[in-house]
UniProtKB/TrEMBL annotation:
The chain crosses the membrane at residues 32-49, 55-80, 133-156, 184-211. GO terms for molecular function: ATP binding; phosphorelay sensor kinase activity; protein dimerization activity. It comes from the Bacteria. Its EC number is 2.7.13.3. This is histidine kinase. It is an enzyme of class 2 (transferase).
Amino acid sequence: MGEGTHAGRGTPEEEPVSERFVDRLGGHARRAFVNFVRGLIQIVMAFVANLPLFILAVLSIVFIPLGAGVVLAPVALLAIRGVANQQRAWAAEWSGVPIPVPYRPEPIGPNGKAGPFRTLKWLLIDPATWRDLLWTILNVPLGLFFGILAGGLALYGVEGVFVAPFLAQVADYGWGPFWPQSDYGLLGVIGPFVLGGALLAVSVPVGAAALKAHALFTQSLLAPTRNALAERVQRLSETRSETVDASAAELRRIERDLHDGAQARLVALSMNIGLAEEMMKHDPETAQRLLAEARDASGTALTELRDLVRGIHPPVLAERGLDGAVRALALTLPLPVDVHIDLPGRADAPVESAGYFAVAEILANVVKHSAARRAWIQIEHTGGRLLMIVGDDGVGGADPAAGSGMRGIERRLAAFDGTMAVTSPPGGPTVVTMELPCALSSPKTLPSSGTA
């Protein structure tokens, strides 16, 4: 009876241990399988993607003087960028190694399309393109090496545990230094099993380390260089200082406009009302005239205040977002404007304000200087950036360095790490491409959002 009770107590205590062992073994096997698959992917990518693309890219660049490379080189280099971006994603997902994308903004030509020559120039002058090319060829041997480390140990271990012991007695069987190549009796069964189990045990940490090493190698070539990061930090520091100065100047302008405009009219309004009160009994007609002037002055002051507020942050921008505000702005222009906006959500208010006033300034320049018959606006959110393109069919010849308006737009965008590129050959068309890094919030979470 006592022995039965003891046995009954022992079984529940032993089952959790065995279950934990099975769970750990299963988890280890899953991780080993994942490492095997990822290692196999790296090997396949090295020989199926990297090597052919490197050869194609080099030949395309060589054939640029003959004309064929003008078309083929961008295709090959952009394909390499696609492979590199996939490796960046795998490095972050598999090994926790983030690799920012260092590429320069893509050029936009008339109607939002860049020609082959502009695309080729953009690719060839970007230092990241040449680092991509170097990574592409170096990844062939290194991808093979790290892929074998990540997946080969697990495969070799599985072969030793589950296959070699049963085939150890078969003559001329086996491969590699571990497994017997003919019958060795009991040793031919136990040896591969033990060695295979040891390889399976170390395959998980070694595989993870191999994938991490490959990710670090990828990061060393595909991440932005220190010089690029230093230049970006310096540029941001300069633009922050310029933004502070511009904000101070804007505050002074608002103060001056209030003092010289609405405040002066309100003072005159108060004086007219006071005089009207004094003249009411003795000269009603004069009092009535003073009250009429006071009413006109109040309307003028209200208009000036509305214009001032609109210059600071248009109410339509707060109520309807960048989409609605730009569409409303386009309706006020004296020429037809094609507007194409695809924004699934709204950016932060400062980003929307910067984008709106940048577009407004460009459109003002179109009306004043371009002699255009039509203009177009394209706004979308792609790749974590707000892309804004404003173009016109005017006379062209716009020079960003010649006018303070363009420089002001650059400063406004640079405060948010944004960029502006102007393409304006003599005779037109003029295309201004602006980008602002930002994330969009769902319109469902913003009660003030709306559809234009």
